[in-house]
Amino acid sequence: MFEAAEVGHTLDKDTYEAKQEALRAKLIAMQSRLRKSDIPVIVVVAGDDHPGCDDVIQMLNQWLDPRFVQTNAYGPPGEEATQRPAFWRYWRDLPPRGTIGIFSQAWTAAVLADRIKGGDEAAFLRAVEHVERFEQAMADDGAVVIKFWLHLPKDLLQQRLKEAEEHPDREWRVHPGDLLVDENLANNLQAVETYLRRTSTGSAPWHVIESTDPHYRDVAVAELLLEAVTRRFPRDKAARARDKAAAAAAGEEPTTFEKLDPHTVLDLVDLNQSLNKKEYHQRLEELQDRLARASRAVYQARRSAVLLFEGWDAAGKGGTIRRLVQPMKPQLYRIVPVGAPTEDELAHHYLWRFWRHMPGAGHVVIFDRSWYGRVLVERVEGFATEDQWRRAYHEINDFEEQLVEHGYYVGKFWLHISRDEQLKRFKARESTPYKRFKLTDEDYRNREKWNDYEAAVAEMVARTSSSRIPWNLIAANDKRFARCEVLRIVCEGLESLL
Amino acid sequence: MFEAAEVGHTLDKDTYEAKQEALRAKLIAMQSRLRKSDIPVIVVVAGDDHPGCDDVIQMLNQWLDPRFVQTNAYGPPGEEATQRPAFWRYWRDLPPRGTIGIFSQAWTAAVLADRIKGGDEAAFLRAVEHVERFEQAMADDGAVVIKFWLHLPKDLLQQRLKEAEEHPDREWRVHPGDLLVDENLANNLQAVETYLRRTSTGSAPWHVIESTDPHYRDVAVAELLLEAVTRRFPRDKAARARDKAAAAAAGEEPTTFEKLDPHTVLDLVDLNQSLNKKEYHQRLEELQDRLARASRAVYQARRSAVLLFEGWDAAGKGGTIRRLVQPMKPQLYRIVPVGAPTEDELAHHYLWRFWRHMPGAGHVVIFDRSWYGRVLVERVEGFATEDQWRRAYHEINDFEEQLVEHGYYVGKFWLHISRDEQLKRFKARESTPYKRFKLTDEDYRNREKWNDYEAAVAEMVARTSSSRIPWNLIAANDKRFARCEVLRIVCEGLESLL
User: Which CATH class is domain A266-495?
Assistant: First the structure.
């Protein structure tokens, strides 16, 4: 869930200064329109980077007109608060229409802390339900509800928390940040993931922001806040045209969060990894033997697995799948190639066609492309509406959670190659007669949209990768390396079932 | 939750015959429009009246064109199904667009049975979440999702189940109907209530239908199904005008579910109950003594209560509240009269003004009118949009559940009088100089809308009364009886905190 916020996003000082100035002017202008509207704005700032949360709140108070902003931070509940239901404090502090209320940690930290300090799962699930309903009620009432989770990679987090510890004004209770570095990491992380997934809805989404570089972090938060509120104002065509013209005259690119830093989680994949022929054959043999044993044992134990492969065109999905199934008995697995939906499939919910193929006891089903088409090709090519692909993340998460709760192993693989490598492979296909049929004009057209696809992949990973059902991003510039890597992960996954 | 479906709704044979004929023609016409649309229709038939569910499904298959209806009933999961996640069967059986899928019991019975056969609460809450997401995904995808819970009063239910037992083809697993008559009634009922509340959403609502009279039940179900599907067709003004003209020419009233039977849960209140002066003074004194003791004990135990009073104009709320607080120390209670919202209150979510008044430890807060204004006066007078008052039921349920989870006693009272009694009291006010100020033209105007208000009260009770937080419908034609009844219930409520 956090991989996509460990990319090392930064903003250099000059860019930051320039953006900051423009942003502050826009934020003030936004607030003056907001004042005349009946929209309350609820900003939640939480996360594992606790010192960072304080800094962001500081920044918001400096950049915004403080007369119409109220910041609410919560110490240990006083007598008044403990005597009343937990949400009483938060209701009391809700911003009136036309203003902004910033909530520091608030109900997010409270619900997580209760769970991690030993509260039982049912109480936790009930509390999460109250949070969902609370935020939904606000959104239904016309509020902009926007939530930021500030994230630091683990080593940096440990360092920051140590620094913070040296200050005497420590927080009053277990803090999510502490949770993610302590020894119960796995359990705690799962509580955080469950919380963020369940409460990340279309009308009250979480934005997981990488907090490594304060410049990037501050601009990202301000940008997203500005976008979320501005989107709610009645659209005034003339005004937008004026803004655009003014920006163009000033030589500015219109800033948006998406363009803030073109780096994505895919940049973290080290595409230089490779195996020479000899290493490859040796490892492949070892891994295929291991897989043969594992798949037989899985069959005997009557456990099941779902594997799915996504990746760039020509990334080598087919070849990888072939090596994967070689050592498995044919009756133990099935490959499901996913193409354009049939008439029958179009007559149903898009997940229907995939549910049909769920494996029985002892079987492995391998999807060559999958339900993620909804948030990849269908998103980028416009086959799905924005509403459709946006809600697909939740639908997919719920679907996959059911598979894991039933006891399946779910392995998700994205085969990653560079743009140059893809071009090389396309050219090679053109000149190899028996491979030429694989290449169509469409492949070249898709290349044009590389950046759009990359943004879609990054968001997919951010929203559907979790510690229980992670995305495996596989370096596939070297096919040998990719095949062995996939086999290794599948072996581990199947062995985890035994 | 079920009071409103124990009213004794019936339909005489002639009305039934006439309605049936018209309905069947309309259902067939609806199906032929449906065929040309991209809407799948998902009908869930479940409930405690298990034999009734079968009858309703029979009826639907007879009244609808069976070529475009598929009925899905579920026996014990076979090998195929147990090897896969629970929802696999239901996904497999989803109706294609343009057709109707009827689901007998299905996931509803499965989730409830698991809970009641000893599944833990966390597993239950996770399952309910999957149900919510599943039904939401269908609705988001354009499906009409409509769910019927067929309910029988307990004695009748026992009798029907006995009859059914004599047939050899008993259901394969614990059935919700059995649950509601067995010895764990309270726990089981709470599971059913939790399930129905959580999964009754705007886009996939439950309709609790009284199943006492098969004629009423069948027509109600068919009517609601027809309305739900037809509402989704593009509105064709000309066609609607034609329909209306044709109906008028045939001397028909357009049938709608709302008009099917004007009886409501309020008709069950026996307005003849009364106390003579002597009885009254004696009981009042006893009850006030008891209340004095209970309220002191509650204060010492630092427990709290929220009481709220709704009712017809001139039903005697003020006088009842005065008798209620007489024996309580002034520092222990507060009365909050609820009028039109202030500017400050309008700048917030409508529940905000009520949250502010939640009592501290040891205190009792009494609301003279309450948050239910949203689904009563604001609904009937059009101050709230349909979306607003419809979602208020969920918001209120979640709010009150938080109060009870925190340990408050929540007492909800509707003071009921007859229309005639109200008129008598209005007249009396007119002729009593010191009471005249209480009467305005508006009171008479509200009388005109008696039926609309009564329908709103019935729906409010159906959607917000539960075994943990029931509505108390108080017979108030006799003020003495009403006052003693309220005092008795409040005493019991406070004593339950000790």
Answer: alpha beta
